[in-house]
Amino acid sequence: MLNAKYFKDSLLGQFTQNLTSLMPRKVVLALTLMVLLSLNEAISLLILVPLLGLVGLDVGQGALGQIDGLVSAFFVYLGVQPSLVMILIIYVVVISISAFLTRYQTLQTSQIQYQFANHLRKRLYNSITNSNWLFFSRMKSSSLAHALTNEIDRISTGTGQFLTFIASIMILVVYIIFALELAGVFTGVIFAVGIIILLILRRRASRSRTSGEEITTTTRDLYYSILQHLDGMKTIKSFGMQDENKKVFEDQSNQVTSNYLEAITSYADVKLLFDVGTVVVLAVMVFFLIEVVKLPTASLFLLIYLFVRMIPRFSSIQRAYQYFINMLPAFGNVYSLEEQFLVNSESEERDNASVDLKDSIKLENVSFSYGDEEHFTLSNMNLELPAGKTIALAGPSGAGKSTVADLVMGLISPDQGTVTVDGKPITHNSVASWRKRIGYVAQETFLFNETIRFNLKLAKPDASEDDLKEALKMAAAYDFVSKLPEGMDTVIGDRGVRLSGGERQRLALARALLRKPSLLIMDEATSNLDSENEKKILKAIDDLHGEVTILMIAHRISTIKNADIIYLIDKSEIMESGTWQELSDKGIFVDLTV
Question: CB 3.0–4.6 Å: which of 16, 324, 477, 548 could bond 472 by disulfide?
Fold first, then answer.
């Protein structure tokens, strides 16, 4: 079906190479079992010949007679006189062995199928997590979730069909050999007809590939839509837009269903056409064998038995091939995503030397651009963060404050200039060590639907009970946690929904402090809080003054009055710097104070 060059360059080649390189022994074992099954099928067919003779049918003519002679010679060699009971017992044993091999082969195939899918899922996830932040931030999270779930599941099913395809071909070959021995001309005719039907249905196989691409596209869009609708449910309900929302979702869901049904209809149509076509040809062949050729009854029975077993194999081969071809776009999607993330991965080299902050962090002539007109650009920025001080970056939204924080954390690298810690540049080799010394609290709190203890230990898995309590106290969170029914073992719900916004932020601060960081970054962490909770967070930060270097990012100037140094950033440039008092005396905050 595919020439060698196309196989090499195609997704089929990539799929086969990935599968065989991952688990060569399992694949070889599965293929060996398939060969054994084929041989066992051959033995079961040989046993049928003397059985037909024992029940009174004439097997002494033509090719069937030759086969009977070989089987009889085998029994003579063993010194055994075949009887009906013996033949039946041998037949039962052979079929039982075949059933056992089939079971083992099914289990082996399932292991390959699911372990391969699991390997691809973990490999893709690893490439995602190892990618640089700038590239990752430009990807749709729904596309990644779709690839890691739905697409991998399709690959798992397709892998099973791929192995079924190979096994069916091997067993079919055995049946064809026997059929050729019994009635070569007519078997050749049937085989030719089967090939012709496969060629006629080849276009449908191409449609399966197209259908697979459509399924990939529509299911990816559905995943994106689901995440958007769920995230915006509060707004949708507040606007009374439930009906419009349901209509949009229903249209997308209906499209996905339609694509799947179209693929299944194609499979069913192919099976129908193939079964009808082959049985018509078989009926014509049997008519000629009886009326014209006068084939002996025993040979006729065995030939009919062979073709009854062959027809489903032809159909199975076509169906498995179509399922596999339908899956290939899913593999292509996963493979392409992985390649993109690998190209944009962070360096795997690690500097074992510990990076600590004892003097200062400096941005020296740093320029950075996101590469499109929608984002600002930092140009020749010079900025110093002295160790042990509280430094604030203030200014309107979009001024470049969070970009400075990302540069300091090594999430992004400057296009020009350097970012140094105690005079040493943050490089690909040292960034992992440096990040271990950073505690980060974002505006949008990241919490799992797990216990408070689980969420805290994400930052330090080996933290002791005393470490957890100390971190909670430093973040002004110990009191409210201790009052919960199950304390630190309380499950906080999806994204911490069972806690207030202030409580979630204090937990996030406690988690950051659990690491005992050299640098604590508060990225507009109080912007969504009411004044009371904001005061609690700010009080906790003030209590840390001098113990840890703190970088605060805020567009509300009133939250940074106690900072040692305030950098006022606007239009991606540092407009002014100084203490609150110094900047107030200049009138800088007149229009910005909240």
Answer: 477
Q: Which long-range contacts (CB under 8 A, 24 or more apart) does 51-56 make?
A: 51/84, 51/87, 51/88, 51/91, 52/298, 52/301, 52/302, 53/298, 54/82, 54/83, 54/84, 54/87, 55/84
Whole-angstrom distance, CA of residue 186 vs CA of residue 285: 7
Scanning the structure block, which residue is given the tokens 């969420």?
A: 455
Which residues contact residue 578 at a Cβ distance below 8 angstroms, ignoring those fewer than 6 apart? 565, 566, 586
In tens, the pLDDT along 360-419 reads 999 998 888 877 545 556 888 888 999 989 998 888 777 788 888 889 988 888 888 999
Q: CA 204 from chain center: how many Å?
A: 28
Closest CA to 30 of 95, 91, 115: 115
H or E element at residue 542? helix 531-543
> Can you spell out the DSSP letters for 420-482?
EETTEE--TTTHHHHHTTEEEE-SS----SSBHHHHHHTT-TT--HHHHHHHHHHTT-HHHHH
pLDDT band, very low/low/confident/very high, at 166 (cuts 50, 70, 90) = confident
What are the C-alpha distances in Å from 398 to residues 76, 139, 143, 552? 93, 20, 27, 16
**CA gyration radius, the chain:** 35
Packing angle of the helix pair 62-78, 24-54 (nearest 10 deg)? 100
Contact in structure between 299 and 64 (CB atoms under 8 Å): yes
Q: What does the alpha-carbon distance between residue 185 and residue 191 come to, in Å, rounded to a whole number?
A: 10
State how far the Cα of 512 lies from the Cα of 192, in Å rounded to an integer.
71
Neighbours of 180 (CB within 10 A): 16
pTM reported for the whole predicted model: 0.74
Whole-angstrom Cα distance, residue 147 to residue 307? 42
